[in-house]
Specification:
Blueprint: H1 18-30, H2 60-75, H3 81-100, H4 105-116, H5 131-143, H6 147-166, H7 170-184, H8 189-196, H9 198-203, H10 208-215, H11 217-236, H12 245-265, E1 277-279, E2 282-284, H13 286-293, H14 296-302, H15 304-312, H16 319-342
Antiparallel strand pairs: 1-2
Length: about 350
């Protein structure tokens, strides 16, 4: 309650009505200094200073909000729809990740946000249909993401560096497997999208094994190239006549690495309904362990001869077994997992 000099109340708040108070502030702000005075000599705005020094300061917030409200409403229809869609997609993915406690939600959110912020043009490929269109889609995606090739090139150095530091052994085998899967992971985003969105997969009108097989073409080719490069770097530090065998062994292990990378990309949310493991130190949840092991299991089985060669340092005898195991493992994975997708 604002009082004036002679015990009168400001006209804008007579009766305690807040709306009349705001209207009185607006009128007091826009009225000239000589207008709007009450019969008792008091101005009808919010200010009651008889000297008139601060009569406009009390009404400044009301005047500012009155002037800013139309501008805010006018700008609502000028918000970019791309930003709204990107924020909505990112929020939905992040919310699902918090509910399901999925460690892979960070990569999904980053991928969605990265593509939503871009406006790609035509792919530059001829009009093709059927399985070739799926391979073309993977090629366009890889071409629009040149940073993925930098990641694969950086992963080439890991086996050679680990070999220099530790020599042949389990550490070198683990480093080779880890760097190979890390190099192929960025090129399996389309296979993951097919697994996450069954409706889009059905629009392609392809059988499950055919679609998964075509999605595995690009990772397999890149895995063979990466295996050759990693083998050349290992051969550069390997004395003796067996140095030529490392690139050949890396190429033979490529399909096995591709099978593991595609399987890792297609793993869904963490299965928290799995029974936990009770240990003397507490309860160990098996859901996150099962999620982390998905992909690595196939990669280890399909590259077991190559891993054995990295431990023993004898690659020549493992070339033929590795080629057979890789091809059989990749074909079996495509058939089994593809048939499973056909029922979804």
């Amino acid at each position: 309650m604002v009082r004036v000099r002679h015990g009168q109340r400001a006209g804008g708040i007579v009766g305690g009505n807040h709306r009349d108070h705001l209207l009185g502030c607006a009128v007091g702000w826009f009225d000239p200094p000589g207008d709007g005075a009450s019969p008792g000599g008091t101005r009808r705005g919010c200010s009651s200073d008889p000297r008139g020094e601060h009569r406009h300061l009390a009404c400044f917030p009301a005047g500012t909000s009155t002037a800013a409200a139309p501008a805010a409403v006018w700008r609502l229809d000028r918000l970019p729809q791309r930003q709204l869609a990107a924020g909505s997609t990112w929020g939905a993915i992040a919310g699902a990740g918090l509910v399901t406690v999925d460690p892979g939600i960070a990569s999904r959110a980053a991928e969605e946000r990265r593509w939503a912020a871009r406006a790609p043009r035509g792919g530059g490929l001829p009009r093709i249909a059927g399985p070739r269109a799926v391979v073309g889609h993977d090629l366009v995606t890889a071409r629009r993401s040149p940073g993925q090739f930098l990641v694969a090139a950086a992963a080439l150095l890991v086996p050679a560096l680990v070999g220099v530091l530790t020599g042949w052994g389990v550490v070198l085998a683990a480093g080779w497997l880890l760097s190979g899967l890390a190099a192929l992971a960025p090129f399996t985003v389309n296979a993951r999208r097919d697994r996450d969105l069954p409706a889009l997969r059905r629009l392609l009108n392809l059988p499950g094994p055919v679609l998964l097989g075509t999605r595995s073409v690009l990772p397999a080719v890149l895995a063979v190239a990466w295996g050759v490069g990693a083998g050349l770097l290992l051969a550069a530090r390997t004395p003796g006549a067996d140095g030529w065998a490392w690139p050949v062994l890396g190429a033979a292990a490529g399909p096995g690495l591709a099978a593991g990378a595609v399987r890792a990309a297609r793993r869904g949310a963490v299965r928290h309904e799995l029974p936990p493991i009770v240990t003397p130190m507490g309860v160990l949840p098996t859901g996150p362990l099962h999620w982390a092991a998905t992909g690595w299991d196939i990669a280890v089985l399909c590259t077991l001869p190559a891993l054995t060669a990295l431990v023993t340092g004898a690659p020549t005898a493992m070339i033929l077994p590795q080629a057979i195991v890789s091809l059989v493992g990749l074909v079996a994975f495509v058939l089994v997992a593809g048939r499973g997708d056909g029922g979804r």
